[in-house]
Amino acid sequence: MSTTSLDDLNKRRFVAKQGGGTARIEKIHAKGRLTARERIDAFLDDGSFEEFDMFKEHRCVHFGMEKKKTPGDGIVTGYGTVNGRLTYVFAQDFTVLGGSLSETFAEKICKVMDMAMTNGAPIVGLNDSGGARIQEGIESLAGYTEIFYRNVRSSGVIPQLSGIFGPCAGGAVYSPALTDFTVMVREHSYMFLTGPKVVKTVTHEDVTTETLGGASIHTTKSGVAHMAYDDEQDTIEALQKLLSYMPQNNTEAPPVLETDDPLDRTCDELDDIIPENPNAAFDMQEIIGSIVDDGVFLEVQPEWAANLLVGFARMGGMSVGIVANQPQVLAGVLDNDSSIKGARFVRFCDAFNIPLVTLVDVPGFLPGTVQEYGGIIRNGAKMLYAYAEATVPKVSVTIRKSYGGAHCVMSPKQLGGDINYSWPNSEIAVMGAKGAVEILHARKLRELEGEELAAFVAEKEKEYSDNFANPWEAAKRGYIDDVIQPARTRLRVIKALAMLQGKRASNPPKKHGNIPL
Description:
The chain is α/β, with parallel strands linked by helices. It folds into 3 domains: about 5-245, 2-enoyl-CoA Hydratase, Chain A, domain 1, CATH 3.90.226.10; about 270-430 and about 470-500, Alpha-Beta Complex (2-enoyl-CoA Hydratase, Chain A, domain 1); about 435-470. The chain contains 20 helices and 16 strands. The chain has helices at about 5-15, 20-30, 35-45, 105-120, 140-155, 175-180, 195-205, 210-215, 215-220, 230-245, 285-290, 335-350, 370-375, 375-390, 405-410, 435-440, 440-445, 450-465, 470-475, 490-500; strands at about 50, 75-80, 85-90, 125-130, 160-170, 180-185, 190, 225-230, 295-300, 310-315, 320-325, 355-360, 395-405, 420, 425-430, 480-485. α5 (about 140-155) links the parallel β4 (about 125-130) and β5 (about 160-170). α16 packs across α18.
């Protein structure tokens, strides 16, 4: 091969890798941000990236666009490895026309999405785009829709993750919304369908970019984003950690890692963790940290609907999805947001063969007009549907309370729970003793007062607790497989998961169910 040809190749590669040029790259760096290629280099294993379509250019000739061509057209695509595992990736380059999406830009993304599906590997999008390229009109809209179509086709087949490193506005937001997990960078990234100027024009609201669609909004109020971090490196590491718990695709099992944490380690601190006062709160995080390998729990959506904890951990080296009520927030009740949060997480774990461990301490559903008007019936049904639909191994432990309709939702035996344990102090009933006595003995309570009333209430509450609000009635009927010592929870759950590794279960043949969306 001639020296001239190689020189030409190297020159073209150099130009393509410069994106929008050194001045724009320096401007990005001045804001403490990384370029598209730097993000890919940080995300993938060293030297593993293989790029596609480095020299592809847009075909638009309107508005002088024929004079504004850049090799790669503002999107870097290809594949590499993350911790040695094949992963496809695309990164939007804000230095080229603000990272705006053109027909060519979309074609490049669609190519790697198709490859990811064909080869059964995750795809991760690193988003930093001003939206559709207005100069291309319908071509850019068609390009977005081609991407959305592939997001839907890939859903439940390969893991799809989104990192938001800058703007993500208009139609662009729907691709991250269709992926499994979305991680944002605080202060630098934002997502919204219509920007502050449009909002001001239509609704007369004065709102900033940050308060309309910043990371703090989407991790605390909307639930659109699952995590947010202060800098890009932490955001990239979060994407890597998420992938580490997932299989390559829906036909494979999640990776099992060796652990030095003894499988039979007792958790003696758990024998005394429940307060004597049944209405006193405790931190469910402490129980999770005690029973999982090395105390490592990767919580998902920690700031949204915090009355329900969801996230990933390992037990005996096995990847598990954990769903747990959090008594420290709203006493651990289920409400609209937590039901949606739990249902989506359960369905993800089921789609990708990740066993579910459910820790129960739920006094019921949150009452009130706000919840009822917000659709708590429909939303609570989503969580019930998700657990009933799930065919992965399901192990639950009732820690303290499991009351009423909320008991029916938290992976009971009747929803296909494989192994259901309970701690000896738990209360499994239609409702708590106090509420039950007020209903069952309403007439008598109206006839009594003072010390006589207090003595009668105490007697009847004890009677109800002894007969109903305990794990023994459920255990007598086989609804609870065993009542276990809290300190042995880790060992019992790991042994149950190991026993269930060969589980074979499937739902009736159908196109798909009709979850109450």
